[in-house]
Structures are given as C-alpha cells and as structure tokens.
C-alpha cells in the first residue's frame, strides 16, 4: 500500500510530457527505459524531483563522484536528497577522511548518503575514533564545524 501511495503522489498532476521529460533526463545519463521503471518501482520519489534536480544530482554522482548511472536503479532515493544539505557535505567529509587514511577502502559512499544524520555522524565517529591520530583532530573538528554551520555554502 505504501508503494501505491508514493506512486500516486509522484505522478499526481504530472502530464505525459512532464513524465517523458523526466524519463529523457534519466536516459541522457545512459539509463534504459526498463532501468528507469525499475528505479520508479523501488522508489517513486525519484520522479517527484524536477528535471533540473535529476540532472544536477546525476551530474554530481557521475561526474564529480565517479559513480555509475546504474546506481540510481539500485538507490533511487539519492535523487530526492538535497545536494547542498546532504550529498555535497557528506561527500566532502568522506573525501577528507579518505585523504587522511581514516576511511576503510571498502567503504561504500552511497550508503553514507542515505544514512539519517545521526547514523552518519555515528558511523563517521567510529571511523575517526578507531583510526584517527592526534595530528588530524584540529583539522577534522574545524571541518565538522564548517559542515554543520547553516551559513556554509559551496556555491559562492
């Protein structure tokens, strides 16, 4: 029943041309129509996003993060997440931790994007406390404070 509610919300008020524009936005990233429908079936919210939002999130995931377009088929929720409030800050945090050798090689970034805030901070703290050396503490504290600052904006 939950799927049906989400599907109705996603397509309510959407005309055929809007649906087709969103499908074409996904196709521009190499997804087939079948893959797009699988993503919709997993999480209809991926069609509630605007065409511009679809393009921006896909650009970020593929061109900036080096992930595969097919990731959206497995994790369509990523499209509905905020670039400015979740995806970019978490990517920066994970990249910083990786640059300091504080993230395990098998760490799967898309999982971190989907974690609720508390779980993300907990999992990050586990990596930090288990692998951190004293020289990084000040820089890491500064970065966490910056990412949690509501006035912080990457798009300046």
Automatic annotation (TrEMBL):
Q: Which InterPro entries match?
A: MTERF (IPR003690), MTERF_sf (IPR038538)
Question: What keywords would UniProt list here?
Answer: Transcription, Transcription regulation, Transcription termination, Transit peptide
The answer, when asked if Transcription is one of the entry's keywords, is yes
Please give the biological process terms from Gene Ontology that the record holds: DNA-templated transcription termination
Picking any one GO molecular function of the record gives: nucleic acid binding
Classify the source by domain of life.
Answer: Eukaryota
What family, per the record? Belongs to the mTERF family.
The molecule here is called: Mitochondrial transcription termination factor family protein
**Species, as recorded:** Quercus lobata (Valley oak)
């Amino acid at each position: 029943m939950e799927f049906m509610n989400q599907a109705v919300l996603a397509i309510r008020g959407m005309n055929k041309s809007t649906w087709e524009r969103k499908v074409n936005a996904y196709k521009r990233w190499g997804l087939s129509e079948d893959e797009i429908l699988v993503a919709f079936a997993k999480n209809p919210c991926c069609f509630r996003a605007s065409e511009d939002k679809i393009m921006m999130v896909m650009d970020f995931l593929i061109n900036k993060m080096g992930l595969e377009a097919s990731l959206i088929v497995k994790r369509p929720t990523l499209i509905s997440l905020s670039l400015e409030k979740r995806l970019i800050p978490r990517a920066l945090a994970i990249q910083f931790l990786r640059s300091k050798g504080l993230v395990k090689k098998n760490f799967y970034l898309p999982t971190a994007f989907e974690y609720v805030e508390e779980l993300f901070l907990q999992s990050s703290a586990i990596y930090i406390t288990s692998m951190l050396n004293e020289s990084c503490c000040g820089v890491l504290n500064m970065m966490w404070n910056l990412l949690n600052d509501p006035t912080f904006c990457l798009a300046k």
